[in-house]
C-alpha cells in the first residue's frame, strides 16, 4: 500500500472513522452490550434511544462539543441519545431503515461489525484454542485437494483409505467396547470456534446486502441523468445484477440460502445444536450461558432474508423505472393526439383545397355480410367453408358456456390448503402443493399461488428454478416457498 492509497483510505474509510471517533469507547461498549450480549440483530429506534439514554446515565459519559453540537451538552440524556443515534446513522456507523409497519429500526453496519470483531481480538483471552483450528486447517486443505482431483483412480484410492480407517475404528470399538471421544478442553475449544464462525457469518451477510443496495443506488443515479434511454438503463441493471450473481460471493450466498431452506437440513441443524448444549451441561463445561447458537437458525434466516429483500427491492425499482418510462411515452402519445385534434379543428374553419384530396373511380362497393337485408338487391349470404374439424353452423349450450362463462379462482380455498399443509410442516413449496392438490385451473391457479406468496411477509419467492408438472407439460418456474408465520 502506497502513501497516497493510505491517505485516501484514511479520508474515506468508515471503519477508520469509527476508530478515530472521540466517542468510540462509549459507542463500541454500548453496541456490544445492546447487540452482542443480548443477541439482537435489529432494534427499533425508540428502544435504542431509550437504552442509550440509560447507558449514558449509568456510565456518566460526558460528551464534548466536537461530538455533538455545544447546545446539546446541557440537554437531557434522552435528547443526547437521540442526537447520537442520528449522527451514527448518518455517518454509516449504524443502518436505519423502516420495517413492514413503517417504524424505524437499526442494525450494525458492516463497518461497525468489522471494528467490533477486530477490537475483540485485541483483548487478552484466558483460553486460546489451537488444536481444533489446526485440525480444521488440515481438514480443509485435504478436502481442497481431494475434491479438486479429477483422476478417478486417485479418488477411489482416497475413498478406499477412508473406508479402511472406518472399518478399523469399527473393529476397535467392537473388540474393546470403548469409543474415543473429545475431552472437556477439546469440546470447549470447538464450541468457541463454532460460536465465533457463526457470528462472523452473520457479519458477512451485511456486505452482500450492501452490494445489492449499491446497484440500486446506481440505478437511481442513472435514472436522474437526462435523456437516458430505457434500454440502456435496463441493460445496465440486468448486467450488474447478473455480474453480482456470478461473482464468488453471490454464488456462495445463493448456495447457502438453498441449503438453509432445506427443511431436512434445518431439522438436522436444530438437533445438532440441542445435543451440543446437552453435552455441555452433562460435562459441566462452563460456557458463560452463551445461547447464541440456539437462535442461530433464526438469525441466519433473518439476515439472509434481508439479502433476498434487497434483491427484490432491486427488481421492484427496475419495474418502477420501466413503468415511469412507459408513462412518459404514453404522455407523449397523448400530446401528439391533442396536436392532431387541434389541427383538425383548425381545418373546420379553413378547409383544405381540392389539391389535398384524391378521387376514387366509381362508387365504393359495400359488402356487409351481417347487414344484407338493408340492400336494395338482396344477395344470398356468402357460403363460408371451414377447414375439416373446425367451425360449423351447429352449436350447443356448452359452446356458449366456454365462450362467456369464465371460471374464477377461489383464493380462500388455496390459502386454506396452504394452512393445512403448514400445520405439521415448517414450509411447503408450490411444487409440493401442485403434487398434492393438482392444478385444476391451470396457469391461472399457479399465478394465484404466486400472488399469495408475494403479498405475505412469511412466504418467499426465489429465482432458483423449480419446474412444476401441469398435466403433461413442464412449467419452468422460480421456487415458491410457503412458510409458517410462527417460525
The SSE order reads: HHHEHHEEHHHHHHHHHHEHHEEEE
Beta-sheet strand percentage?
5-15%
Indicate the overall shape: extended
Q: How are the strands of the biggest sheet laid out side by side?
A: 1-3-2
Coiled coil: 149-218
Organism: Chitinophaga ginsengisegetis
Pfam families: DUF3375
Protein name: DUF3375 domain-containing protein
Describe, in plain words, how this protein is organized in 3D.
This is DUF3375 domain-containing protein. It holds the Pfam family DUF3375. Residues 149-218 form a coiled coil. Keywords: Coiled coil. The protein is mainly alpha-helical and 487 residues long. The chain has four domains: 3-122, Arc Repressor Mutant, subunit A (Orthogonal Bundle), CATH 1.10.10; 127-180; 184-346, no CATH class; 411-483, no CATH class. It has 17 helices and eight strands. Helix 2 (14-20) crosses helix 6, helix 4 packs across helix 5 and helix 9 packs antiparallel against helix 10. The longest helix has 54 residues, at 296-349. It is extended and about 115 Å long. The two termini are 47 Å apart. The model is unreliable at 402-406 (pLDDT under 50).
Please specify the SSE layout and strand pairing.
Layout (H helix, E strand, L loop, with lengths): L2 H10 L1 H7 L3 H13 L6 E2 H15 L17 H14 L3 E5 L5 E5 L1 H13 L8 H16 L5 H25 L7 H41 L5 H17 L1 H13 L2 H20 L13 H54 L47 H8 L6 H11 L5 E3 H8 L5 H12 L5 E6 L2 E3 L2 E3 L2 E6 L4
Helix pairs in contact: 2-6, 4-5, 6-9, 9-10, 9-13
Protein name: DUF3375 domain-containing protein
InterPro entries: DUF3375
Keywords: Coiled coil
Amino acid at each position: 500500500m502506497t502513501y497516497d492509497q493510505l491517505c485516501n483510505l484514511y479520508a474515506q474509510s468508515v471503519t477508520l472513522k469509527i476508530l478515530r471517533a472521540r466517542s468510540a469507547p462509549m459507542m463500541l461498549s454500548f453496541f456490544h452490550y445492546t447487540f452482542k450480549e443480548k443477541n439482537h440483530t435489529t432494534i427499533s429506534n425508540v428502544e435504542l434511544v431509550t437504552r442509550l439514554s440509560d447507558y449514558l446515565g449509568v456510565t456518566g459519559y460526558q460528551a464534548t462539543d466536537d461530538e455533538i453540537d455545544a447546545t446539546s451538552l446541557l440537554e437531557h440524556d434522552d435528547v443526547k441519545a437521540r442526537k447520537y443515534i442520528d449522527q451514527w446513522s448518518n455517518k454509516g456507523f449504524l443502518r436505519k431503515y423502516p420495517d413492514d409497519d413503517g417504524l424505524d429500526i437499526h442494525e450494525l453496519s458492516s463497518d461497525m461489525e468489522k471494528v467490533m470483531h477486530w477490537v475483540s481480538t485485541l483483548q487478552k483471552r484466558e483460553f486460546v484454542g489451537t488444536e481444533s483450528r489446526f485440525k480444521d486447517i488440515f481438514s480443509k486443505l485435504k478436502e481442497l485437494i481431494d475434491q479438486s482431483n479429477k483422476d478417478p483412480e486417485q479418488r477411489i484410492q482416497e475413498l478406499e483409505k477412508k473406508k479402511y480407517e472406518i472399518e478399523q475404528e469399527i473393529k476397535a470399538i467392537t473388540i474393546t467396547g470403548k469409543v474415543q471421544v473429545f475431552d472437556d478442553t477439546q469440546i470447549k475449544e470447538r464450541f468457541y470456534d463454532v460460536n465465533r464462525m457463526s457470528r462472523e457469518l452473520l457479519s458477512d451477510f451485511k456486505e452482500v446486502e450492501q452490494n445489492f443496495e449499491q446497484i440500486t443506488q446506481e440505478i437511481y443515479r442513472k435514472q436522474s441523468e437526462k435523456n437516458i434511454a430505457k434500454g440502456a438503463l435496463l441493460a445496465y441493471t440486468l448486467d450488474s445484477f447478473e455480474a453480482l450473481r456470478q461473482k464468488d460471493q453471490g454464488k456462495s450466498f445463493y448456495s447457502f440460502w438453498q441449503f438453509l431452506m432445506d427443511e431436512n437440513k434445518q431439522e438436522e441443524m436444530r438437533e445438532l445444536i440441542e445435543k451440543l448444549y446437552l453435552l455441555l451441561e452433562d460435562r459441566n463445561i462452563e460456557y458463560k450461558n452463551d445461547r447464541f447458537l440456539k437462535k442461530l437458525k433464526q438469525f441466519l434466516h433473518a439476515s439472509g432474508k434481508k439479502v433476498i429483500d434487497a434483491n427484490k427491492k432491486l427488481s421492484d425499482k427496475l419495474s418502477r423505472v420501466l413503468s415511469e418510462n412507459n408513462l412518459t411515452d404514453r404522455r407523449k402519445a397523448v400530446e401528439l393526439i391533442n396536436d392532431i385534434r387541434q389541427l383538425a379543428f383548425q381545418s373546420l374553419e379553413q378547409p383544405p383545397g381540392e389539391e389535398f384530396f384524391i378521387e376514387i373511380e366509381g362508387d365504393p362497393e359495400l359488402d356487409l355480410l351481417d347487414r344484407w337485408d338493408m340492400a336494395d338487391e338482396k344477395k344470398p349470404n356468402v357460403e363460408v367453408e371451414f377447414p375439416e374439424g373446425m367451425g360449423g353452423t351447429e352449436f350447443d349450450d356448452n359452446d356458449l358456456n366456454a365462450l362467456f362463462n369464465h371460471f374464477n379462482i377461489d383464493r380462500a380455498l388455496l390459502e386454506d390448503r396452504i394452512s393445512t399443509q403448514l400445520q405439521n410442516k415448517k414450509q411447503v413449496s408450490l411444487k409440493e402443493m401442485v403434487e398434492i392438490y393438482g392444478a385444476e385451473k391451470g396457469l391461472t391457479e399457479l399465478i394465484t399461488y404466486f400472488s399469495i406468496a408475494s403479498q405475505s411477509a412469511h412466504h418467499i419467492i426465489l429465482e432458483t428454478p423449480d419446474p412444476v408438472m401441469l398435466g403433461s407439460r413442464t412449467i419452468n418456474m422460480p421456487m415458491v416457498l410457503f412458510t409458517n408465520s410462527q417460525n
